[in-house]
């Protein structure tokens, strides 16, 4: 049984969403695939290696199997995983693999889980591995589409050209979320106001995204990037890309947790020396892949 789930871009609101503020998130046309077959033992085969249940090499997949086993005990499974989404790129590869694995197990062991049940399991896996997180990534990998979080309101987006530029440096979500948490502990009154400003940006973007109001979107992207920088989640590699794009007149911001990972540019651009993806938004959520 093969299942796939999409990666994501956070258009606005990363980090602030962990503290109950709004974010706009969309599923993208890069997917992760999981093939599950009945087997005597647990085997996980992926670009990271071939292991048994292994919480170091395959943390998300191992916890997904563990959590699924609490619903339906399983003796063994052979899981093969492949993906279009670069790992630790800020594009939701961890949640996509978690959700794709859960769906492939659901299909193989005929548990008939609803989308919401798959999301709940994936959300638990996110907390198992990271200890912290808003649940935004597992939500979008499960449901697909484009949403205003936390309300779960659908957002419609006009015909926008967006490019994702990969820094080549890993973005470790748990590290970045912890970094913001300790900044907030130290300067709570200030950091809470930064979150409030990001919240206002996410809310303001809803109309601008619908009508493709590039002037407003440019302001919101630039300001959101400055606020993320203030939260300490930018880095030299990100700043370099953002500055190069700025010279071309293209606004850009971190997408995802930052500290590396990817930059989202408002426009169609091919930046020399970098891996660039012309992503399309609003992709379908988790699904069975027929062979
Ligand atoms: C990571 O893709 C998004 C963050 O806001 C963390 C989260 O929402 O769990 C940085």
Features:
single chain; about 290 residues; alpha+beta; Ribosomal Protein S5, domain 2; eight-stranded mixed sheet; 12 strands; binds (R)-mevalonate
Secondary-structure topology with pairs:
Layout (H helix, E strand, L loop, with lengths): L1 E11 L10 E16 L3 E5 L2 E3 L7 H13 L5 E7 L9 H16 L6 H16 L5 H8 L2 E4 L3 E2 L7 E5 L6 H14 L1 H24 L2 H17 L5 H12 L4 E4 L6 E5 L8 E3 L9 E3 L2
Parallel strand pairs: 3-5
Antiparallel strand pairs: 1-2, 1-12, 2-5, 2-6, 3-4, 6-7, 8-10, 8-11, 9-10
Helix pairs in contact: 1-2, 1-3, 2-3, 2-4, 3-4, 5-6, 6-7
The chain binds (R)-mevalonate.
(R)-mevalonate binds next to α4 and α5.
Description:
- The protein has 291 residues and is α+β, with helices and mostly antiparallel strands.
- The chain has a single domain, classed as 2-Layer Sandwich (Ribosomal Protein S5, domain 2), CATH 3.30.230.10.
- 41% of the residues lie in helices and 23% in strands.
- It is built from eight helices and twelve strands.
- The chain has helices at 59-71, 93-108, 115-130, 136-143, 173-186, 188-211, 214-230, 236-247; strands at residues 2-12, 23-38, 42-46, 49-51, 77-83, 146-149, 153-154, 162-166, 252-255, 262-266, 275-277, 287-289.
- The strands form two sheets. Strands 1, 2, 3, 4, 5, 6, 7 and 12 form an eight-stranded mixed beta sheet that branches. A four-stranded antiparallel beta sheet has the order 9-10-8-11.
- Strand 6 and strand 7 form a beta hairpin.
- Helix 2 packs across helix 4 (136-143).
- The longest helix is centred in the last third of the chain and has 24 residues, at 188-211.
- The radius of gyration is 19 Å and the shape is globular.
- The mean pLDDT is 97.
- (R)-mevalonate binds next to helix 4 and helix 5.
């Amino acid at each position: 049984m093969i299942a796939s789930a999409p990666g994501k871009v956070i258009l606005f609101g990363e980090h602030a969403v962990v503290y109950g503020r709004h974010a706009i998130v969309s599923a993208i046309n890069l997917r992760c695939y999981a093939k599950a077959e009945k087997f005597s033992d647990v085997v996980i085969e992926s670009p990271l290696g071939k292991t048994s249940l292994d919480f170091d090499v395959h943390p998300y997949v191992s916890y997904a199997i563990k959590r699924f086993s609490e619903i339906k005990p399983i003796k063994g499974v052979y899981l093969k995983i492949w993906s279009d989404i670069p790992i630790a790129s800020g594009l939701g590869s961890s949640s996509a693999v978690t959700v794709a694995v859960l769906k492939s197990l659901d299909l193989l062991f005929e548990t008939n889980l609803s989308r919401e049940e798959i999301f709940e399991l994936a959300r638990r896996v996110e907390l198992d591995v990271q200890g912290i997180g808003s649940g935004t990534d597992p939500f979008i990998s499960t449901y697909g589409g484009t949403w205003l979080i936390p309300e779960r309101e659908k957002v419609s987006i006009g015909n926008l050209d967006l490019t994702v530029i990969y820094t080549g440096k890993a973005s470790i979500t748990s590290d970045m979320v912890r970094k913001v948490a300790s900044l907030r502990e130290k300067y709570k009154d200030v950091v809470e106001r930064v979150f409030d400003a990001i919240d206002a940006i996410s809310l303001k973007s809803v109309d601008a995204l619908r009508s493709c109001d590039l002037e407003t979107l440019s302001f919101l992207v630039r300001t959101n990037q400055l606020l993320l920088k203030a939260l300490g989640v930018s880095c030299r590699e990100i700043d370099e890309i953002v500055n190069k794009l700025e010279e071309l007149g293209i606004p850009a911001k971190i997408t995802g947790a930052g500290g590396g990972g990817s930059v989202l540019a408002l426009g169609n651009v091919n930046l020399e020396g970098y891996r660039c993806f012309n992503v399309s938004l609003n992709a379908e959520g988790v699904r069975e892949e027929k062979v």
